[in-house]
Amino acid sequence: MDLSEANITKQVSKDDAGEGSMARELIKINFCGSTPLLWRTEDLKAARELGFVGTLVGSLARQPRQNTRLGRPLELLLEEGRLMADMERAAVSGLDSKSEDPEVSPAVVEQYYAGLENSFQEQSALALEDRKMTLTRVLTEKQKAMSVQLCTARAGLAHCPQERQFLTADWPMPQDERCKCRFQVFKDLRRRGFYLTSAGKFGGDYLVYPGDPLRFHAHFIAVCVSMDESMPLCDVLAIARLGSNVKKTVLLCSSGESQDDEREEVVYTSLQWSGMA
Amino acid sequence: MADQNKTAEVKSSNELLSPSELFEARTRSHKIPVRGQKDFLPSGSDQQRERLQQSLQEHWKLVSEERVERLGNLVKAVWIPSDQRVELLSPAGKFWQTMGFSAHGKQCLHPEEALYLMECGNLQVFYKDLPLSIQEGYETFLCSKTMSIHHYKVFGHLKRLGYVVTRFDPSRVPSQYERQLNLAQSRERPGRRLKRKRSLSPPSGHTETQEGATAMGTEEERDGNREEEDMNPMPEDTNPKLKDTNPKPENIHPKPEDTNPDDTQMAAQDDPSTTAEGCRSWWSKGGSPHPDLPGQSQNTGSPRWDFTSISFPDLGSRHQHPRSLASPDPCLLPGAVGSVGPCDVVPWLNRLNLREVRMSRREQERERDRDRYHRDVNLDREVQRCRNWTEYRDLLERRSRRRHRDRPAHLWEGEVTPLHDPSQVCLTGELMDKISVVKSTQLFEGASSLKCSNEWRISFNIYQPDTVAEFKKSTPGKPYSRMCVCSFSGPVPDLQTLKVLAFQSGDVPVTYAVEDHGDISFYCFKNFQIPKDESF
Q: Which stretches of sequence are listed as region Disordered (chain B) (predicted)?
């Protein structure tokens, strides 16, 4: 099996602070278009340990034809990916658009089919051991009775263009004011220990959880607004109404003026609907 | 380039299963555990931590599971990048009923359909003789602008719910005219031509009464004689056959068994007194201003009949029942028919419904009320003085102008005039329309002339899940809706976009699927009519 890709993956993270000399793998972020995705389970686990939750957007392998629980890939917020890269815990891995599809040597194809045959033999042997009569008969006769894996993540079989790792400075993100504000807010909330997911369906930018979203409900809807721009009153009312309907507090977040060498301040205003009885 | 000799230092940076793991996977459960209740605040308690660990473990177990399928259950296919399609190498399964298309004699799938089937574990797509992983599928199949990952997420979401989702093709939307004619079904079936039934005109089975009786002129005969028929503005009640005395009898006699001895027209055709030019000598009689019609051109003015002297029997009158009608003036009959003798009216009367209408008391009252103000227009002396329709219409116009002379000049002569003249009778609804300055508009108004921007386009046709059993790709029928994919980070569709897409979609509503990090919301815009209050 051609594992050349393993070499790209196995880059040691420089930031070993407090972790001893344990080498940590960099999380591989793959872009599909302009959407950052994580494909390997260990990358998902590592991201979650860092506090980056993301959203699963693929079919679940066990039950593909339902929408309640989805499977890999994990889609990251652009802010999540960028922060991970800034923390030097992740690197963008993408296809080199300039390289053409490599010619596949017949040896590789042979290797693949040899692997299949080998698997077949082993499975037949296991079936024999298992002594299930029908299974044995079928499995030892035809290869089509054997089980094969449909890989989720790239298996590195060298028939697709090789992956390259990009420098983190090349993080493909639009650099307009709104994105900068969003990123600052994200960084700050993350620093304070909150878990964040996207809040498009709540009319905001982020849903803020006190702990892992698997176990806790969100407390806040974070809406990023520019510090200088005034917000029309009806917009304030609308978002406050919405928040009260879903039992969450609305947070208006603005990132302060960026000053050299000083950490940017993020200012929060919470809106809660209260009656006057 | 990577050094292919280096072996992997890590246990398995890929997630390949060993043969024994593959074997074990056969007995995997297919159930998804239900998620428990969430807590409100993290309390730092052990119990909470444990539950979190449990949830996480369960979560990773589900997420890390790889797809394992029986090799025989997998349909094999190959990716053809030049055509952007996936060609099947082994026969398609059940999915063929709602997905896929034929090209170059092979079964093919669109990239998004292939990717969905890969995710369902039904399809294995090969490229350069090696199978593609799901990741490679995403990265290879979803690169175009028409089928990006956003479109695929909407596609997958709807397919998983059971809908039939196909690509939108603007050229296959039936036009409004086709819809009016209900041609939608036949349009979907190319190659089946509608044959126009050709039938010979049935013969005139009616026996005619004598002269001038209201036309039983059959359509078919008119058709048959169309080339010869002239546009002479004769009164409608003459049988066109009588007009067209063309000496070509084969046009007129479609069936030999049609011999109606009473049919005077037949005799007319063979009448030697008719000339080649279709002369009409028989209906010009003394007193007509153009006595010599033979040879005259067809488009002269209508000869004047003196209706005061031609008696048209009123067989429907309740009061007089003549037992028989006298023979008409021979000069009114065609050719040399001569006198036809009196006509016995009784058999004709039997065919008329001469029963008195029995009106209930209320109906009688209603009739009386209606007639109370009824002025017989024929008694109007000015109307009697009109000799033809043109003069009558002039009279009506003069009268209406007179009526309108009593409009105050300061109101009606300036640039700005009132919206309504109160002396004119008007229904409340019409009045409301007149004085409403702001007109309501429909979504389709003006849509045909608008140009679509490149940003917005309809991507899919959606058919409901319960139609899957009878769904036919060749005649899918009218979709339930059409989908346009957008996101919260982009602009809201403006009115121009709404109009253009609604128009493109014909009579199928357009739904906007807003996709945001896996969450999909659906919006649609509908016409709304403010109800009019016409109670006052």
A: 21-48, 174-325
